[in-house]
Design brief:
The termini are far apart. Helix content is about 65%, strand content about 0%. The protein is globular and about 50 Å long. The chain is an all-alpha fold and about 260 residues long.
Length: about 260
């Protein structure tokens, strides 16, 4: 499997990457994949990227207003770019960290497959507005966190699914409210699919974070908060989607802590 994962990660063209991910997941479901088989896991610190979008710093990305067509397209493009990065993050979680239980690899291959589906939904809708993936600049903050957490699966599970992806759960209701003002019902439908799946993705991160904490004999709640500080994670800012975070495996103690922020 490492060889197949590496091929998915190295794929530059979005359609090639998503096709490879779907094929890998289908082969896993059919029992044709052994997570330990193939070449050794040499880390891939820079996955394949298309020539566009141009990658810029976060503060260079323009504000995305939904009351204009270009602004709404830019918002959808930004979400598509998040999903493209999320494909690579899920693949990397499976590729980089050897020696985990078989269900760990099943979980992250499933996540990669769903992230690829999300990317396809968003880019298809973007096309109906007259735009394509690559038409707007984007930033690479999500992959930067992959490199920051590349040395330890416990840190990865804490800071990628439980911080970065969980922020998406918080943001989705706010984005839906904005899209209602312009009556983009198809985009609202797509976000409902993405939110449902992303709750599951954060839950995968919560599960394996808890599993790794238990295996190492450290308390999950306090370890999570310590890692936020130690790795200078993006600040957690309200409003929080507490219902979605609860479904995604955040403990009541963690939710109480978030309420107090």
């Amino acid at each position: 499997m490492p060889q197949r994962l590496a091929a998915c990660l190295h794929a530059r063209l979005p359609a090639d990457k998503t096709d490879r991910v779907h094929a890998l997941w289908a082969d896993w479901l059919a029992g044709r994949i052994d997570p330990a088989s193939g070449i050794s896991r040499l880390p891939i610190d820079q996955p394949g990227q298309p020539e566009k979008p141009e990658l810029v710093t976060p503060h260079q990305v323009s504000r995305r207003r939904v009351d204009t067509l270009p602004g709404r397209a830019a918002l959808i493009h930004a979400l598509a770019h998040i999903e493209f990065n999320a494909i690579n993050l899920a693949l990397d979680a499976a590729h980089r960290f050897a020696g985990m239980p078989r269900p760990y690899y099943a979980d992250w291959l499933s996540v990669a497959n769903e992230e690829a589906q999300h990317f396809e939904l968003l880019t298809a809708h973007l096309a109906t507005l007259g735009y394509a993936y690559g038409d707007f600049p984007a930033h690479n903050g999500l992959w930067d966190m992959a490199l920051k957490t590349a040395h330890d699966p416990l840190v990865r599970m804490a800071l990628v699914p439980r911080v970065l992806e969980a922020r998406g759960l918080d943001a989705t209701p706010l984005i839906v409210d904005r899209l209602k003002t312009v009556q983009d019902t198809r985009m609202i439908e797509i976000l409902a699919v993405i939110e449902r799946d992303e709750i599951g993705h954060v839950a995968v991160g919560s599960h394996w974070f808890g599993w790794l904490c238990a295996a190492r004999g450290v308390p999950a709640d306090t370890t999570f908060r310590q890692l936020l500080v130690e790795y200078d994670a993006p600040p957690l800012k309200p409003p929080f989607n507490l219902a979605a975070r609860r479904q995604a495996g955040f403990s009541e103690a963690e939710l109480d802590w978030l309420k107090a922020l």
